[in-house]
């Protein structure tokens, strides 16, 4: 049975259903319950954006508030995973990766390889990404590329409520460390989501739209921009394929290559800064593997090489727009 | 820098690693921070300077007290304050063991200090007493049990020592005589002393040193028994109080609680009350050696396992009176108050 | 005179000796092999520190987890990791415990509760908290130990872990193996409060210092601390004061040490010598017992080295395996 719920409710449901199904799933984060040790309401926050609200009432001590101590608790989640638990730890903002990065990229990512295949680290790190709420430079970044670069990590970034639920359930069941990116500006977006538990496999991009004239590849909040651009371009007689990557590592290049081999034109949309981004990675892979199919230069639509500005007028310019995407498609026809 | 060798000097032995043992875990013992120990020394130094003590000799250590003091004194000098004596370290080794205490105490003796202030637990005081001969000592408790040193504000201890070192308190008031226990194994092949208590336990390895398995205790000798003091001597203190100034000590025969005549609840460590089985107790006369009833076991001196002995060993314990001197801080301060010795803007620095 | 007065049986004492001797001979041999140029990369040797590993690990069960430091061979051996597999790993061979893909700094065996030597100092502390958290959820009385050196005790990860362990009341023990030197800098300079035990107080847990060269002192103190953790009494910090015979890493000329310092500690602060002296004086074990053990250990080490040298290197195919469980 499908009903309309929000992106954040879909995430809450995925956590709830997995915690119910599997007692080794534990959840932790700063204010994930909210109110621990405080005199007022238990479950006061349910996470900074209310994503984990209600889980404490249902699952008790399997959801924990943590102190302001990412190295310690993200590391503890990783250690517990190496011992057979399935922790879901929240790194509140991906921008905070600096304070616990070693535990993620030098420990969790490398255990299996360094220990000759004898370790499994089924940890999920949920983290907020992206701009759009004036959270400014240290709370608005899209740092997916930094994690994607690291062998041993998987990175997931859903664009809609249905995908959010299925991908998070898959992430929790996955036996490798997963960075699950939740775009903060998408939390309120509503869509049809099935009540039952379901998974969406990794490395399966979603072809949101078939067109044939050009390929637009996007992920996260940029999928919406790509779809809007495609709608506008359709009025000009240009029909675009729009591909939602869903997972950045592993990445479904097969679907992208298939589309580009057909359309010959590629625009990659990425909310992050341009150097060494997902956009440049996808572009390079396509240039290398489908060069002969290209009819025009590859276009990338990204944020500029700047930190995220605070004030709305500037933040609006920072975030790639549907019009910029459409313009880039048009450029491939010049 | 050269200090007038005839300047009045006092020694300080401050142990950075007392109060660090397993009683932090098996009892509720606290651990006194190194910065607090340095602070205690600062209080003592300030008080002694006010009495005219110009030079203090300290035992050097790498546990942090010295470096914190150095920093604090530099800060005071920077402020133009002259309220601290010259602090000098004895030119002795630092091994991080009790050997450092022996060496430093000897150096202080040789240097002619008027008194030695000891910061530590019973073990540290014991080590100083082994070497200090007639130099009086005074204790500040920074150990776990602190049965020996009296509990008192260090500033007052510093004042009393300062008044004594500068010759303002008559000897009859300034010093108190103290008892100690001596244990001899095989006629002196191995021997040692204790200031408060000697306990014989059935355990036979030193291990983590502290005593807490009271079911293993068999014999207890104390120099004094004060019901207000914790540790092994509290067993005696709760049976028959004997003061530091009273003649004689106490001998208690112990057993496994289930088999003992009397069972006692004893505060054997900070925040730890344990059951002790008592068979009997009797006065311990000075000068009369007592041969141990236990044929083998471990001898603990002032609460720490030290000497293992077997059936082939002959072990005897003797109480000695007037064995060493302590500064009688209470008496000194009463004298100071009654004779208004601290009245006036500053104290004249005496020549000798 | 042959009465056993120790808290361990005769067989257990012999096992302790064997563990310490195995660590000692393993490290001394690795030192020699490294100087021949046959061992790739970095090694950090534990010789001199055996009493700490043995004194603590003797209390542990298979599923108690430990997180070690870069100087991890001693912890591995004491935890029961296969010695031949370890030697093969150090030589980078496929038969190594990590398939030749980890090396000395990353030796691990999760089945034996060994969460790895770690090339990132202090990184093991949060991981040990995680193992303790898992044990707490499973309510099985298992505990975790986080080993750090005196240098790594300054890392944020370590300090954060002390705090976390305290507020979550985790069954974890933090062991600071203080050998006086963080690489080349002295602990007297690097540690602001000059005492690890004071740090423990600062984070709301008891701290204890023991002579890390005295097996029985470590054994007894660790026993109480570990028992307390198992029974729900929460975390503690144990500082083992010890000395290392070799440099920070093999190749370290150790010019930062006083002249004669190493010779002096080998002569006077050798934990194996003092253990032997104590147990033979009591008559529980004889010199012959210990010598028989020495012979057995040397033969094991010899076998480990020759089989490691003869073993195959990993193949090209091995380069790409085990990055993920599935991708």
List its traits.
heterotrimer; A: 334 residues; alpha/beta; Rossmann fold; 2 domains; seven-stranded mixed beta sheet; five-stranded mixed beta sheet; 12 helices; globular; C: 327 residues
Written overview of the protein:
The complex is a heterotrimer of chains A (334), B (352) and C (327). Chain A is α/β, with parallel strands linked by helices and 334 residues long. In chain A, 35% of the residues lie in helices and 20% in strands. Chain A is built from twelve helices and 14 strands. In chain A, α2 (55-59) links the parallel β2 (25-29) and β3. In chain A, α1 runs parallel beside α7 and α8 (222-235) crosses α12. The mean pLDDT of chain A is 96. The radius of gyration of chain B is 21 Å and the shape is globular. Chain B starts with 8 loop residues before the first strand and ends in a 14-residue tail after the last helix. Chain C contains 13 helices and seven strands. In chain C, α2 runs parallel beside α9 (215-230). The mean pLDDT of chain C is 91. Classes of the chains: A alpha/beta (334), B alpha+beta (352), C alpha/beta (327). Chains A and C meet through α3, α4 and α5 of A and α5 and α6 of C.
Distance between the termini of chain B: 21 Å
Lateral strand order in the biggest sheet of chain B:
11-12-10-9-8-14-15
Structural class of chain A: alpha/beta
How many E strands of chain B? 16
Structural class based on helices, strands and sheet pairing of chain B? alpha+beta
The name of the CATH topology of the largest domain in chain A is Rossmann fold
- What is the fourth-level CATH superfamily of the largest domain in chain A? Thiamin diphosphate (ThDP)-binding fold, Pyr/PP domains
Indicate the topology.
The complex is a heterotrimer of chains A (334), B (352) and C (327).
Chain A: E1 2-6, H1 7-21, E2 25-29, H2 55-59, E3 63-65, H3 70-82, E4 86-93, H4 101-108, H5 111-114, E5 124-129, H6 144-148, E6 154-156, H7 161-173, E7 178-183, E8 190-194, E9 206-209, E10 214-218, H8 222-235, E11 240-244, E12 247-249, H9 253-263, E13 266-270, H10 278-289, E14 299-302, H11 312-318, H12 322-331
Parallel strand pairs in A: 2-3, 2-4, 4-5, 5-7, 6-7, 10-11, 10-13, 13-14
Antiparallel strand pairs in A: 1-8, 6-12, 9-11
Helix pairs in contact in A: 1-7, 3-4, 8-12, 9-10
Chain B: E1 9-14, H1 23-26, H2 34-51, E2 55-58, H3 65-78, E3 86-89, H4 98-111, E4 116-120, H5 122-132, E5 137-141, H6 154-165, H7 171-174, E6 175-185, E7 190-194, E8 197-201, E9 217-222, H8 233-237, E10 249-255, E11 262-269, E12 272-284, E13 290-291, E14 297-301, E15 304-309, E16 315-327, H9 329-338
Parallel strand pairs in B: 1-2, 1-4, 2-3, 4-5
Antiparallel strand pairs in B: 6-7, 6-16, 8-9, 8-14, 9-10, 10-12, 11-12, 13-16, 14-15
Helix pairs in contact in B: 2-3, 2-6, 4-5, 6-9
Chain C: H1 10-35, H2 50-57, E1 65-67, H3 73-79, H4 83-90, H5 124-138, E2 144-149, H6 156-167, E3 172-178, E4 181-182, E5 185-186, H7 187-190, H8 196-202, E6 207-211, H9 215-230, E7 236-241, H10 261-268, H11 271-282, H12 287-310, H13 316-319
Parallel strand pairs in C: 1-2, 2-3, 3-7, 6-7
Antiparallel strand pairs in C: 4-5
């Amino acid at each position: 049975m499908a009903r309309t719920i929000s992106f954040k409710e879909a995430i809450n449901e995925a956590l709830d259903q997995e915690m119910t199904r599997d007692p080794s799933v534990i959840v932790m984060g700063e204010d994930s319950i909210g109110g621990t040790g405080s005199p007022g309401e238990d479950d006061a926050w349910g996470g900074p954006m209310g994503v984990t609200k209600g889980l404490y009432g249902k699952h008790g001590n399997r959801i924990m508030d943590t102190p302001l101590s990412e190295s310690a608790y993200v590391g503890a989640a990783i250690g517990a995973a190496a011992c057979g638990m399935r922790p879901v730890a929240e790194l509140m903002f991906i921008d905070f990766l600096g304070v616990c990065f070693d535990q993620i990229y030098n420990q969790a990512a490398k255990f299996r390889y360094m220990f000759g295949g004898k370790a499994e680290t089924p940890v999920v790190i949920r983290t907020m990404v992206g701009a759009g709420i004036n959270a400014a430079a240290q709370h608005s970044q899209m740092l997916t590329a930094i994690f994607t670069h690291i062998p041993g990590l998987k990175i997931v970034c859903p664009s809609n409520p249905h995908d959010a639920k299925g991908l998070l359930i898959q992430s929790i069941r996955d036996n490798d460390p997963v960075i699950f990116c939740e775009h903060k500006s998408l939390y309120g977006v509503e869509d049809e989501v099935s009540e039952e538990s379901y998974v969406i496999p990794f490395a399966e991009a979603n072809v949101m739209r078939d067109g044939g004239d050009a390929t637009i590849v996007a992920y996260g909040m940029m999928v919406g921009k790509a779809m809007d651009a495609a709608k506008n371009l359709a009025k000009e007689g240009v029909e675009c394929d729009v591909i939602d990557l869903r997972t950045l590592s592993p990445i479904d290049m097969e679907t992208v290559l298939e589309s580009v081999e057909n359309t010959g034109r590629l625009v990659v949309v990425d909310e992050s800064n341009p150097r060494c981004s997902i956009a440049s990675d996808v572009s390079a892979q396509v240039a290398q593997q489908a060069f002969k199919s290209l009819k025009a230069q590859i276009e990338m639509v990204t944020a500029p090489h700047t930190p995220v500005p605070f004030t709305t007028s500037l933040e609006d310019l920072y975030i790639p727009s549907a019009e910029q995407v459409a313009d880039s498609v048009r450029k491939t026809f010049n | 820098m050269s200090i007038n060798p005839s300047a009045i000097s006092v020694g300080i032995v401050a142990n950075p690693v007392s109060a660090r043992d397993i009683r932090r875990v098996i009892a509720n013992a606290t651990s006194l921070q190194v910065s607090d120990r340095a602070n205690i020394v600062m209080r003592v130094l300030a008080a002694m300077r006010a009495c005219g003590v110009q030079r203090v000799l300290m035992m050097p250590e790498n546990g942090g007290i010295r470096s914190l003091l150095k920093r604090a004194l530099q800060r005071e000098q920077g402020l133009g304050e002259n309220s601290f004596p010259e602090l000098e370290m004895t030119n002795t080794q630092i091994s991080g063991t009790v050997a450092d205490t022996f060496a430093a105490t000897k150096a202080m003796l040789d240097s002619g200090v008027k008194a030695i202030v000891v910061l530590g637990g019973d073990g540290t005081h014991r080590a100083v007493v082994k070497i200090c001969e007639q130099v009086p000592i005074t204790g500040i408790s920074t150990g776990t049990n602190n049965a020996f040193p009296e509990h008192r504000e260090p500033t007052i201890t510093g004042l009393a020592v300062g008044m004594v070192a500068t010759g303002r308190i008559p000897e009859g008031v300034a010093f108190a005589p103290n008892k100690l226990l001596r244990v001899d194994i095989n006629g002196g092949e191995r021997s040692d002393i204790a200031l408060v208590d000697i306990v014989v336990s059935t355990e036979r390895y030193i291990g983590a040193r502290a005593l807490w398995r009271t079911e293993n205790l068999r014999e207890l000798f104390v120099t004094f028994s004060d019901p207000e003091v914790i540790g092994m001597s509290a067993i005696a203190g709760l049976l028959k109080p004997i003061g530091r100034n009273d003649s004689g000590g106490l001998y208690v025969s112990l057993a496994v609680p289930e088999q003992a005549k009397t069972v006692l609840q004893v505060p054997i460590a900070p925040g730890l009350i344990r059951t002790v089985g008592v068979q009997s107790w009797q006065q311990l006369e000075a000068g009369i050696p007592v041969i141990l009833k236990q044929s083998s076991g471990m001898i603990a001196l002032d609460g720490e396992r030290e000497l293992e002995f077997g059936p082939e060993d002959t072990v005897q314990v003797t109480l000695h009176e007037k064995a060493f001197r302590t500064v009688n801080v209470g008496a000194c301060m009463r004298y100071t108050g009654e004779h208004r010795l601290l009245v006036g803007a500053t104290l004249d620095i005496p020549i000798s | 005179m042959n009465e056993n007065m120790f808290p361990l049986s005769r067989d257990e004492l012999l096992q302790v000796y064997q563990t310490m001797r195995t660590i000692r001979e393993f490290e001394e041999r690795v030192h020699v092999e490294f100087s021949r140029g046959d061992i790739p990369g970095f090694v950090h040797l534990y010789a001199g520190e055996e009493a700490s590993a043995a004194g603590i690990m003797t209390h542990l069960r298979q599923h108690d987890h430990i997180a070690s430091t870069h100087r991890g061979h001693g912890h591995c051996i004491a935890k029961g990791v296969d010695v031949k597999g370890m030697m093969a790993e150090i030589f980078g061979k496929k038969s190594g415990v990590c398939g030749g893909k980890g090396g000395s700094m990353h030796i691990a065996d999760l089945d034996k509760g060994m969460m790895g030597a770690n090339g990132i100092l202090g990184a093991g502390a949060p991981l040990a908290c995680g193992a303790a958290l898992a044990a707490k959820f499973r309510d099985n009385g298992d505990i975790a130990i986080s080993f750090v050196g005196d240098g790594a005790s300054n890392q944020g990860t370590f300090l954060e872990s002390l705090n976390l362990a305290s507020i979550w009341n985790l069954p974890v023990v933090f062991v600071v193996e203080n050998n006086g030197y963080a690489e080349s800098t002295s602990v007297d300079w690097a540690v602001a409060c000059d005492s690890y035990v004071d740090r423990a107080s600062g984070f709301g847990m008891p701290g204890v210092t023991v002579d890390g060269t005295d097996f029985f002192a470590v054994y007894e103190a660790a026993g109480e601390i570990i028992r307390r953790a198992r029974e729900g009494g929460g975390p503690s910090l144990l500082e083992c004061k010890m000395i290392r015979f070799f440099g920070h890493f093999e190749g370290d000329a150790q010019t930062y040490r006083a002249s004669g310092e190493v010779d002096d500690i080998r002569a006077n602060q050798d934990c194996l010598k003092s253990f032997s002296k104590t147990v033979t004086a009591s008559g529980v074990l004889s010199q012959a017992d210990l010598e028989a053990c020495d012979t057995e250990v040397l033969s094991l080490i010899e076998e480990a080295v020759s089989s490691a040298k003869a073993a195959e290197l990993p193949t090209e195919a091995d380069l790409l395996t085990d990055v993920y469980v599935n991708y």
